[in-house]
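Journal club prep, notes for RB
We'll compare a predicted complex against what the paper describes. Inputs for the S-adenosylmethionine case:
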Amino acid sequence: MLQTETNYLKSCLNYTGGKYKLLKQIIPLFPKNIHNFIDLFCGGANVAVNVEARGAICGIDKQKEVIRLFNTLKQYDFGEVLNIINRIITEYSLSETSKYGYIKYKCESSAGLAAYNKEQYLRLRRDYNSRPEDNPYYDLVFYLLNVYGFNNQIRFNKKGHYNIPVGKRDFNDKVKSNLEKFMNRIKEKNIEFINADFREAKIELAKGDFLYADPPYLISTATYNEQNGWTKKEEVDLLRLLDGLDEKGVKFALSNVLDHKGKENTILKNWAKNYRINYLDYNYGNSNYQIKKKTLNTTEVLITNY
Ligand SMILES: C[S@@+](CC[C@H](N)C(=O)[O-])C[C@H]1O[C@@H](n2cnc3c(N)ncnc32)[C@H](O)[C@@H]1O
């Protein structure tokens, strides 16, 4: 089935650096007739859930909590997941605007929900951070922390504690419906989610297979990039891995930025001379002047070996 831009599905996690908005530029640049597909650094899996492949689709990321959540969502029925989510919302007295509107929470808009949810959210976060074990229940707590958290961000401190403050949204009808669609999609496509560092994951691809890589960008910042998560060492290791695929005749595409806020990635620029650079327009279809200004000097690219 040919996917048009209107039916691209958004991840159930609002991922920093997520590629949802760029899908309409990235996916048409992918090879046609992909056999097996790997979404390396899958994050929210925005790419994996929208790719057509004849063989297996696999997402790899080192963020354990995210991969655990996706595997739990794959394993359970939507009804079962919804029951647990509703139980947690009730137990922690979190807002439910889809049922009660904003008036019950003494606020007129979503902005006011932060004040209402703050204490309960912090209790939920505390309980999550001191969980006795990882299990499907806590995977859904993690999901709810993301839904009710500030800007729906994901960030863990050095101790591995989730440390995002409360946000202004809740588990409303739109969020619920997106979760259901996302769950259906990962089941339909039977996406295999693997928790691993890219250097340790077994990447066994052959001609006809395709790998998409969306690593943290060396010259920009993101929450998953804090604590020296991505340095020149990781950058060079990844470029070697991609060279290795090229030697085997496996097609790949790498998302990245060549320039960003006055910085340039010279390692990447030199390496990319051997491949094809497809320039993307980050502001495509966006009329927001502030966003345009912010990303004016960012060269967003998709580097391919085909
Ligand atoms: C730009 S985000 C990916 C966003 C994703 N493409 C999407 O659309 O949702 C980069 C991801 O790389 C992961 N990551 C960082 N270092 C990694 C490593 N060494 N091995 C595997 N994954 C890593 C982060 O956890 C993060 O999820």
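Talking point for the session: The first helix runs from residue 23 to 26.
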